[in-house]
């Protein structure tokens, strides 16, 4: 692929937009970001706060620890942290500079019960609105479609900022240009200097939090369980490294990660198994970078048809991405990679997303296992064929089927998951 090609420029830009640092699970961090911005606009510590959030935001924030809060959970905690100690200029690292004193203040502010949370009544799957009040003054900040996409700011009946927020549109580089064949071409030909900054940061950040997850106790310690109950082979290590990063992150570890498709879990799943296989195979740094470009873009390509949030577990897409990159590290081309993706999707596309929490680490391990098994199947001359369930002839057609399943077919599933999580009875 030539540098002058529109796809080349778009693929580079997609990587720069998607592979960004975040500290903590991205949905509570997005709430903290909106809350920090709202307080800045208000100019005073709010006496009252009202948060409106879409159902999927509520689902993803309910059970995950907000970083730098001494293990507080939930939307109220995320909003309080953003209001008291957030720095909106740091975007998805909005809570990275919280002091010990501020952690105490956050808890005290939260205990005053000044924050009310409501379900947003609109069509947006990804929506956050924070309203803050002090005496006769108020401010409103709205985010739609992705984590840092502020679409509206108002203070005291004056609109300070507004941009169009269409349902299902992100306002980012068009990802419909992505396809498996071109992604492989791009991974093979991209000038490393065009992607080195984002890929180097992904390796550094995600490796560090994975090491932390294996060193200390977090969540259900899935990474440690894998290493203690299996042979210490590369397949086990690949799963364990990705799971350990999630163990730490879902339990409030304050180390940042580089996300993919708006998700730290997906960012770790798409990168850490690939890094582990690159070490095992002793490939060059350049080959590792190209493999990570492939894994990230394959993950993003699958997620394009699914959307940022759904009832479909995003780790599945990233596990397929890492499986494809592992095939690439072994010298695989389009045929090997396409079969790996289809095989993996046939295995684990039934995993649901029921919010961010400790069990995400185990789902990541399963997704990575499927990605690797998908490639192992091809090596052994085995494959799933078109007509086998949701698998159809061709990798792009199968990916499209997954998008249809996740976005259209699992809409009601998503509603039931949320009802179960909030305790609503039939």
TrEMBL record:
Q: Which InterPro entries match?
A: Ser_deHydtase-like_asu, UPF0597
- Report the residue ranges that make up the Serine dehydratase-like alpha subunit domain in this protein: 89-418
Task: Please state which protein family the record places this protein in.
Answer: Belongs to the UPF0597 family.
Q: What is this protein called?
A: UPF0597 protein bsdE14_08660
- Native source organism of the sequence: Clostridium omnivorum
According to the entry, what is the taxonomic lineage of the organism? Bacteria, Bacillati, Bacillota, Clostridia, Eubacteriales
């Amino acid at each position: 692929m030539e540098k002058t090609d529109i796809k080349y420029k778009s693929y580079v830009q997609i990587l720069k937009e998607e592979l960004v640092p975040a500290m903590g699970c991205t949905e509570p961090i997005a709430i903290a970001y909106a809350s920090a911005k709202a307080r800045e606009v208000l100019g005073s510590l709010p006496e009252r706060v009202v948060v409106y959030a879409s159902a999927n935001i509520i689902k993803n924030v309910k059970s995950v620890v907000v970083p730098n809060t001494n293990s507080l959970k939930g939307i109220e905690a995320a909003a309080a942290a953003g209001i008291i100690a957030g720095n909106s200029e740091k975007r998805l690292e909005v809570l990275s500079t919280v002091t010990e004193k501020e952690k105490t203040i956050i808890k005290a502010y939260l205990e005053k019960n000044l924050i009310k949370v409501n379900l947003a009544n609109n069509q947006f799957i990804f929506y956050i609105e924070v309203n803050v009040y002090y005496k006769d003054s108020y401010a409103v900040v709205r985010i739609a479609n992705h984590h840092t996409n502020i679409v509206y700011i108002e203070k005291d009946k004056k609109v300070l900022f507004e941009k169009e927020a269409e349902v299902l549109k992100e306002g980012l580089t068009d990802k419909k240009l992505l396809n498996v064949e071109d992604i492989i071409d791009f991974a093979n030909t991209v000038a490393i200097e065009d992607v080195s900054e984002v890929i180097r940061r992904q390796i550094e950040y995600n490796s560090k939090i994975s090491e932390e997850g294996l060193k200390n106790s977090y969540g259900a310690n899935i990474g440690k369980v894998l290493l203690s109950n299996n042979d210490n082979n590369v397949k086990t290590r690949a799963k364990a490294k990705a799971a350990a990063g999630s163990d730490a992150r879902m339990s409030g570890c304050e180390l940042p990660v580089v996300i993919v498709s708006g998700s730290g879990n997906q960012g770790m799943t798409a990168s850490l198994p690939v890094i582990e296989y690159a070490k095992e195979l002793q490939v060059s740094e350049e080959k590792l970078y190209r493999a990570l470009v492939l894994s990230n873009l394959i993950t993003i390509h699958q997620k394009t048809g699914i959307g940022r949030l759904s009832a479909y577990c995003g780790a599945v897409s990233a596990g397929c991405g890492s499986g494809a990159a592992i095939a690439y590290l072994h010298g695989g081309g389009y045929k090997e990679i396409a079969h790996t993706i289809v095989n993996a999707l046939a295995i684990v596309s039934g995993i649901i997303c029921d919010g961010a929490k400790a069990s995400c680490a185990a789902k990541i391990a399963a997704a990575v296992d499927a990605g690797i098994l998908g490639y192992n199947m091809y090596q052994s001359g085995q494959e799933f064929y078109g007509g086998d369930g949701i698998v159809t002839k061709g990798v792009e057609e199968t990916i499209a089927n997954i998008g249809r399943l996740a976005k259209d077919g699992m809409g009601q599933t998503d509603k039931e998951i949320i009802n179960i999580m909030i305790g609503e009875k039939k």
